[in-house]
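User: Reviewer 2 asked us to show a designed sequence for the structure in our supplementary figure. I'm pasting the C-alpha cells here. Could you produce the per-position amino acids so we can include them in the response letter?
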C-alpha cells in the first residue's frame, strides 16, 4: 500500500512531538521527581503505593482510554494516538538504554519551567495532527470535541486530579512544582496550537484590484473573493478583495500590494482557525 506524502508528514510531525516530550520527561521531570499530571504521573503514584510497574499501569490505562477514543472520536484519532503513545514509551526506553540520563538542572523551578515548555511544544505538535500521546490527553481531546472546552484547559482539569494524588504521596513541595508544570503546559499548548493554525484575514480596496487579485491567485497561490461596494464619500463603485493567508504569505502579499498600489486601503485581522481548501480539513476535526 502506497503511503502518501501527507501521511508521512503527519507522522513525521507526531514523531518530532514525541521526541520533544520524551526529552522533557527524561531530562527535566523524572530526574527531579516532578509528576506534572498525565498517566505517567499517575503511574508514579500507583507504583509508590502498590509497587505495580509504571509500564504495566500505563499500558492498562492506555488500552482503556484508546478504546474510548476509537468509540467516541474515531479510528483515525485512535490509530495515530497508538503510534504516538507507544512511540513515546519506545523513545523513553531508547534514551534510558543508550543515552546517559541526568537532570539538566537540579533547580526544581527551572526544571519545571523548561520541562513544561519543551513538553508543551511536543504535545502541541502531536495534537496538531489530530493525535494524542494517550492518557489524560485522550480525555482532553474527548472533552474538547463534545463539550467544546479548549484542549489545554481540558488537559489542565484532568492533570490537576493527578497532582492531587501526587500531593498525598510525594508531599506538598513536589506536588506544587508539578502543579506549576500543569498550568504552564495547559496555557502554552493552546497558544502554540493557535499559532500553528493562525492566519491573516485581509480586506483590500484598490483601484488596481484586478491586478492584485491575479497576484493573490497566481503568485501567492490563494483564492480570493470579490465584493462589490460603493464608496461612502465618492459614491463610486469599488471592488473589495477578501482573502485569507498564512503568516508567511501575508508578508509576501503586503510587499506585492505595495509594489502594485501604494495607496491601497487594507484592513488586517487575525483568524485563530480557518477551515476549507488549503487550510484545516473540517471533516477531520
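Assistant: Here is a per-position design you can include in the supplement:
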Amino acid at each position: 500500500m502506497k503511503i502518501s506524502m501527507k501521511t508521512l508528514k503527519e507522522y513525521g510531525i507526531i514523531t518530532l512531538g514525541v521526541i520533544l516530550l520524551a526529552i522533557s520527561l527524561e531530562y527535566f521531570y523524572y530526574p527531579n521527581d516532578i509528576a506534572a499530571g498525565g498517566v505517567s504521573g499517575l503511574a508514579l503514584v500507583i507504583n509508590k503505593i502498590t509497587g505495580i510497574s509504571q509500564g504495566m499501569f500505563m499500558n492498562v490505562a492506555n488500552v482503556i482510554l484508546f478504546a474510548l477514543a476509537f468509540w467516541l472520536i474515531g479510528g483515525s484519532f485512535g490509530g495515530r494516538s497508538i503510534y504516538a503513545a507507544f512511540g513515546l514509551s519506545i523513545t523513553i526506553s531508547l534514551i534510558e538504554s543508550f543515552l546517559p540520563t541526568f537532570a539538566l538542572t537540579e533547580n526544581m523551578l527551572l526544571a519545571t519551567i523548561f520541562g513544561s515548555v519543551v513538553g508543551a511544544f511536543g504535545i502541541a505538535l502531536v495534537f496538531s495532527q489530530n493525535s494524542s500521546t494517550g492518557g489524560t490527553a485522550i480525555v482532553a481531546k474527548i472533552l474538547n470535541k463534545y463539550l467544546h472546552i479548549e484542549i489545554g484547559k481540558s488537559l489542565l482539569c484532568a492533570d490537576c486530579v493527578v497532582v492531587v494524588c501526587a500531593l498525598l504521596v510525594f508531599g506538598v513541595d513536589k506536588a506544587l512544582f508539578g502543579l506549576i508544570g500543569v498550568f504552564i503546559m495547559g496555557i502554552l499548548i493552546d497558544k502554540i496550537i493557535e499559532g500553528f493554525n493562525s492566519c491573516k484575514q485581509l480586506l483590500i480596496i484598490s483601484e488596481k484590484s484586478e491586478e492584485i487579485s491575479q497576484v493573490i491567485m497566481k503568485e501567492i497561490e490563494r483564492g480570493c473573493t470579490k465584493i462589490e461596494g460603493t464608496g461612502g464619500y465618492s459614491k463610486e463603485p469599488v471592488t473589495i478583495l477578501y482573502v485569507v493567508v498564512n503568516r508567511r504569505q501575508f508578508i509576501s502579499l503586503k510587499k506585492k500590494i505595495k509594489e502594485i498600489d501604494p495607496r491601497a486601503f487594507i484592513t488586517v485581522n487575525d483568524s485563530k482557525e480557518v477551515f476549507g481548501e488549503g487550510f484545516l480539513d473540517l471533516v477531520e476535526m
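For the response letter, you might also mention the following. The longest strand covers residues 237-245. The radius of gyration is 24 Å.
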